[in-house]
Write a structure and sequence with these properties.
The chain is mainly alpha-helical. The chain contains 13 helices and four strands. It has a four-stranded mixed beta sheet with strand order 1-3-2-4. α3 packs across α4, α4 runs antiparallel to α5 and α9 packs antiparallel against α13.
Length: 390
Amino acid sequence: MSSSDEPENSSGGSPQAEAELGVTSTKTASTSRKKRRHESEHSDDIRSRDTSTADESLPGAKRVKKETGGDGEPLALPGYRQSQKFWYPDGNVVIILGDVGFKLYASRLSHHFTTLPLPQPPQDGAEDGAADTPARCEIESRVTPEQFETLLKYLEFPFEYPIHDAPRDTVIELIHTSQSLGCTHALRQALVRLGALTQSEDPPPPDAHAYPDYRTAIEMISIARKHDVPSLLKPAFYELLRSTAFWDLVDREGRKAVSLRQGDLLRMLIARMELGKAWRALYRNPVWKQSKKDRRKCTCSVTGDSESASDSEEARVRRVQAWRAMFPEGVLDDPDPIMCAGQLRTRFVRDKTGWCDVCLEREESVWIAARRRWWRQLDGWLGLEPRTSD
C-alpha cells in the first residue's frame, strides 16, 4: 500500500504521539476542574464565615466573624460561647470568664490589667498554624461575664463611655470588677467618680441604699481604706448598721465570717446602741413644739378633749398615749432609726388618724432634725474622721 492510501492522522503525528497527546489533554482538563472546584469551595468558605456583625450598640464596634456550619448556624466552640460584643476576628488572646470567651488584643489587655495572668500570644515564627491560633486564658473570679463586658465597654470606648459620667450603680460595678481583675486605671477613675457621687454630709433619703447588699458594703470599706478614700467609709458602715442579714450572719458565725476588723464591729455595736436609745426617746416623747412664728392652733381629735381642756396635763398624757398606740408593734427594734425618722408621714401616720396637719408638721420637723443630728454623730460612734461642717 502506498503512502497515499494510509489513513491521515488528525494530529499530524504518529499513533504514539497521538496517545501521548490524549493523556496530556486529560490531565489538563482534570487540573482545571480541580482548580475551579477549589476556588468555589474557598469562596463558599469565606461567605460562610462572614455571617455576623459586631454589636451595633457600641460605637466603633468591629465586625465579628463566626465559624458556621453547612446550615449557616454558628459552630459551637469547645468550653465557651463567643461574646457578642467583644470578639475581635484579629484578636490574639481569648479570655474565658465563666462560659463566655472574649477574643481581644493582648497589647491592650496588658496595658489595662496589671495583675491579670495573660498568656503570651503566638509569635509569627511559630510552627505552622500556631500563629493563627490565639492564646487562651481561663480566669476564675467572682466577676461575671456581664460585669467584664461592662468594664471592657468603658475601657475600649472611653470617649463614648467616660467613667466620670457613669451612674452610681455602674460605678460600683466597675469598682468591684476592676479591683478583682487588677485594672488599676479604671479603679482609680471609678473611685473618684463614686466619691463625687457620695453625699455624706446629709443622711440619704429613707428609701435609698448606697450599696446593693452588705457584701458590697464590706468590699467598699476595704477598697476605701486601701486607696485612701475616707468619704466612702461612712455610707458603707451605715449600710452594715441597717442590714438585718449582716447582723444575723455575725450572730451565727462571728466576726471572721464578715472580714471586718474587730474594732469595726465594736464601734458599730456602740452606734447601734446609741441610735436605739435616741430613737426610743424620739418616738415615746412627742414634742409638738410651737414656734414663735407659728401661731396656728391644734385641731386634733384624737382625745376628744374640748379646746379649753386640750392644754391640761391630763390631755397631754392622753395625747402621748394615743401617739404611741399609733405605731406598729416592734417599731423600736427597727435596725435603722435614721430611716424611720424620715418616714413619719409616709409610713407611720399616712391616714392622719385624728392628728391635725399643724401638729404633724411640727413633729415632723423635730424628727428631721433628729435624723440629721444622728447622722453627724455617726462619725464619732464609728471612729471616723470628723466632718468640719456642723
